[in-house]
Amino acid sequence: MSKTVELIYQGTSYPLPLIEGTCGEEAVDISTLRSTTGLITYDPGFVSTGSCQSKITFLDGEKGVLLYRGIPIEQLAEHSNFIETSFLLIYGHLPNREELDYFNYHVTHHSMIHESLKNLYDGFPNNPHPMAVCSAVVGSLATFYEDQLNVQNEREIEITTHRLLAKMPTIAAYSYKKSIGQPFSYPQNALTYTENFLHMMFSNPCEDYEVDPLAAKVLDTLLILHADHEQNCSTSTVRLVGSSGCNLYSSVSAGIYALWGPLHGGANQAVIEMLQSMMEAGGNVMQFVDKAKDPNDPFRLMGFGHRVYKNFDPRCQIIKKLAHEVFDKLGVNEPLLDLAQKLEDIALKDDYFLSKKLYPNVDFYSGLIYKALKIPINMFPVLFAIGRLPGWIAHWTELQGDQDFKIGRPRQIYRGRGKTDYTPLKERT
Ligand code: ACO
């Protein structure tokens, strides 16, 4: 017999069905609540609200579990690569050889952007934030493919998926080249996804450039770790925009903006800036920890805390290990890494952080690795966007085929003035 939860309101009992996920989590289905009772629910930040049923990613914040289509993140980080993981997220299974070759071929062979689109970069001021540029350019792709935006046409969605994945590194690298006044480097089809990105970032027409295989491998692993995280702020944005029937380019463009904020994907940039301020303040970590604990001070330790992880973030554990490996292998002496380690040690013993279950998140160490790979700080969130792209595409695509599909439209509790008559200007004080 299916389980229900009983809601008693004004003496009447309303049975509400319980939905059970495949990994055991339970949810109360309130979709008929308003039509049967006239009530709505109130849940700022959607802390207790499930917005959809999804088969893409499972995470257990208490146990530190993260699964893409059932496969643990640790296994994917060790054995997979970003292209294969992208296929897994978008199509629901690991590809066989033929599927992988087809996918890889198309993602490789759509990487150039229209020459006219390059002109868009010239319209920006000299040193724009690359997240703003990337979002604008991704959104503009819709203008180049207007005849292939049908959200119900599987083939058009497939082409759009290939185009987005293929062009994103080009768009991102061009935004960096624009900011330093260098010519754009065209993509090279002989290179892998991450090699190609590094080539477009760091090569120039005046000298030979060879991609460091370690840098490409590490970057690929970081992209896998960022590839999806179920209904986070940017993914929910992509779904909400997509729920209006809006095309994938525009939905992803909105997702990039949502990711930019310092409470979300912008945190990797904010962590480095925070560590640099600590260094400038003489490395006095305690001063910053005290500030973060002060209820009258809005300062937060960037890279600490997570809406869902309340024990440890499994991605952070992999990234921390990776950071130490990268620094050892590249022979980089990074004082900020020591400072980050010191900060983590102090915070993890502090009652404030323990009692609020605040642990380092994915952004705490990733910025240090990007820095070691000589990626400029304002490009860190862009790297996050490149990584998160397959997750956004997977969720947008899942939404289009969802049997419960509805335009996203939350309600509100109105707290403003009641009905008030218009006062003519001359009578106003
Ligand atoms: N430093 C100090 N105190 C913190 C921190 C922090 N980093 N994070 C949360 N707290 C405190 C809050 O002040 C709050 O205290 P209170 O109960 O006394 O009011 C309590 O912990 C709970 O925090 P909330 O903001 O209510 O938790 P929420 O789940 O809404 O926020 C968030 C999660 C946004 C990630 C938050 O922890 C934060 O701002 N962290 C710093 C920014 C960051 O690293 N963002 C990246 C997140 S990962 C990602 O998006 C990829």
Short synopsis of the structure:
The chain is mostly helical and 429 residues long. It has 18 helices and six strands. The N and C termini lie far apart (65 Å).
Unreliable stretches (pLDDT < 50, length at least 5) are none
Distinct compounds present: acetyl coenzyme *A
Structural Rg? 24 Å
The secondary structure category is mainly alpha
N-to-C span: 65 Å
Topology:
Elements: E1 4-9, E2 12-20, E3 26-28, H1 33-37, E4 57-60, E5 65-68, E6 71-72, H2 73-79, H3 82-91, H4 97-108, H5 115-122, H6 130-144, H7 154-180, H8 193-202, H9 213-226, H10 233-242, H11 248-260, H12 267-280, H13 285-293, H14 314-330, H15 335-347, H16 351-355, H17 362-372, H18 380-400
Antiparallel strand pairs: 1-2, 2-3, 4-5, 5-6
Helix pairs in contact: 2-9, 3-18, 4-7, 6-7, 6-11, 7-8, 7-18, 8-9, 9-14, 9-17, 9-18, 10-11, 10-18, 11-18, 12-15, 12-17, 14-17
The structure holds acetyl coenzyme *A.
Outline the structure in words.
The protein has 429 residues and is mostly helical. Helix content is 52%, strand content 7%. The chain contains 18 helices and 6 strands. It has helices at 33-37, 73-79, 82-91, 97-108, 115-122, 130-144, 154-180, 193-202, 213-226, 233-242, 248-260, 267-280, 285-293, 314-330, 335-347, 351-355, 362-372, 380-400; strands at 4-9, 12-20, 26-28, 57-60, 65-68, 71-72. The mean pLDDT is 94. The structure holds acetyl coenzyme *A. Acetyl coenzyme *A (ACO) binds next to α17. The site of acetyl coenzyme *A (ACO) has 19 residues, from α17.
